[in-house]
TrEMBL record:
It comes from Confluentibacter flavum. GO terms for cellular component: plasma membrane. This is Biopolymer transporter ExbB. Belongs to the exbB/tolQ family. Signal peptide: none annotated. It comes from the Bacteria. It holds the Pfam family MotA_ExbB. Its main location: membrane. InterPro entries: ExbB/TolQ_transport, MotA_ExbB_proton_chnl.
């Protein structure tokens, strides 16, 4: 009897050590599918917003980069043509370059002969149109950066409501798999909304910086053009 008890005691730790913990892995697809219909719909909306934000970012980035490329000798050629009275040649040069700066200077050249105040007004109006073209659809990024986390938080609220509803109707017994569905909805939509918001926010600010550089470039060339016109002949 004593030998049997000692043998059982010696084998106990071995039996306990033989049980290995089961590692549970969960992929992103499984995580989304476990969130229920409400979570999947919100994730789908957030995914479409992310795709739209990425498309707008790269489309505007390439457009702004193309707009910022101006030959360093462009203004020297313009001033040379204007000094020698070759207005037509200056306008042709502006049409060939086809950039915001060249279109701005071209508008000023078309007003040569009028008072400087009128030329300055024409340049300002043309500048506003060019800035509007550069900022096309950029405001959508700002909207996505704010709406993304809010939509994700909406999914969080829906998930918590579902979890509380299951607790209220559990009848004293809590089924963890049913409860987990609501928690999955709450957590996955929150993470997805934050990711979309962060990506859109960073893309928006980067495009704003790039656009400001082009705007400063246009302002500098406009002032240089007006100063040249104001020089005594």
């Amino acid at each position: 009897m004593l030998n049997t008890l000692i043998q059982t005691t010696q084998e106990g730790p071995e039996l306990l050590t033989d049980v290995e913990p089961v590692e549970k892995s969960l992929s992103i697809i499984e995580l989304i599918s476990s969130g229920g219909l409400a979570g999947q719909l919100i994730i789908a909306v957030l995914f479409l917003m992310l795709v739209l934000a990425i498309y707008i970012y790269f489309e505007r980035l390439f457009a702004i980069k193309a707009a910022s490329k101006v030959d360093s000798n462009f203004m020297n050629q313009i001033k040379d043509h204007v000094t020698h009275g070759k207005i037509d040649a200056a306008q042709i040069l502006c049409a060939q370059v086809n950039s915001p700066v060249s279109r701005l200077i071209g508008k000023g050249i078309s007003r040569i002969g009028k008072p400087l105040a009128d030329i300055n007004t024409a340049l300002e109006n043309a500048g506003r149109l060019e800035i509007y073209g550069l900022e096309k659809n950029v405001s959508i990024l700002a909207t996505i950066s704010g709406a993304g986390p809010m939509i994700g938080f909406l999914g969080t609220v829906i998930g918590m409501i579902l979890a509380i509803f299951e607790l209220a109707n559990a009848g004293g017994t809590i089924q963890m798999d049913v409860l987990a569905s609501g928690l999955y909805t709450a957590m996955t939509t929150t993470v997805a909304g934050l990711i979309v918001g962060i990506v859109a926010f960073m893309a928006f600010n980067h495009l704003v910086v790039k656009t400001d550089k082009v705007v400063y470039q246009m302002e500098a060339n406009s002032l240089e053009f007006l100063d040249h016109l104001n020089e005594p002949s």
